[in-house]
Amino acid sequence: MTTMQNTVEHLIVHQLHKEPNGPARVALGSAPLVVNSASQRLIDHLCELYGTRNGKGFGKFEADDAGYAMPGLIRQYTDERIDFHALSQQMMAELQTRAEAEPLASGGYVLIAQVSNPAMQFLFVALISEVIGTAISDDMNVADSIHLDMDHLRVAGRIDLGSYRAGGERYVSFLRGRGDVAAYFKLFLGCNDVHTPLKETQKLVKGLEAFANEQAIAGNERDEMFQRAHSYLDALGDGQGEVDLATVAEQVFPAAPAQLQSALQNEDLGINDGFVPDRRAIKPLMRFKANGPQWKLEFDRASLRSGAVIYDKYSDTLVLSNIPDELKKALLEQ
């Protein structure tokens, strides 16, 4: 994955103190930080981690300003009625309230940054815990070293400010994680990630087709890949199982699942995990459907390999074989 050049416009670090089943309190940073090489590396690493994490939810702000603080705060911030420092402090007050209501929530450092890169300008929030490692001191002694646990980023979210200003539908994203801990952070962000299984399944099918094209997967290999995808998603839809992109990648492209997983979690697709596949939307994996001004066609994709359907690109003609008797009779009567 290519690392995008990030410009850190504002950055501040606060702290949320909370033990599971305990009260929550905050310690506020006194002022936004001056961005140096260390903080730039931190932001770059966090943004890259966030981009590669599987299982993100996408949506927009809830319409209920009374029940959710974040929509009003972002509106005030983009209208320049509050500055970044005040925004971050009020965000921490909302985070404290939400964490207090979730017994299993735990504390850590809360990094809030406004970042811009060639793709977007966004507000990034991450809750990062500490971990004890080992270091060698200048006098060659072994000592404990406390540092940020970057490898286990589980609580983070992002607000695409440009899309928000433009009235977009999917300008908030967050790590879905597991259980109620992720749910409280979604409430903190004020995100409505309602999604329909039909649309999410269509996006997944689109992602599978795009991956096959990009990797030049054709012929029988393409048919077999789509057959695996259809069988797995159809079984999920029949049994009301939920989609997990990592598992889909393992089932559909076992030769290199990480490669397919990376393609499916591309944020341009914006696929939400956790939906039950709509079985109507997976038909394109097995069936080819097209139409022109005077005709409509639909046939199994495998027909192109079996010879039942032949496309001659030089004469720009499509030949159908094994015509059933009923169709032949109907054609002769025309």
Automatic annotation (TrEMBL):
- Keywords, alphabetical: Cytoplasm
Subcellular location(s): the record lists:
Cytoplasm
Tell me where on the tree of life, at the top rank, the source sits.
Answer: Bacteria
GO cellular component term, pick one: cytoplasm
> Coiled-coil annotation: which residues?
none
Q: Which InterPro entries match?
A: Nucleoid_associated_NdpA
Family per record: Belongs to the YejK family.
The entry's protein name is Nucleoid-associated protein
Organism whose genome encodes this protein: Chitinibacter bivalviorum
Lineage per the UniProt record: Bacteria, Pseudomonadati, Pseudomonadota, Betaproteobacteria, Neisseriales
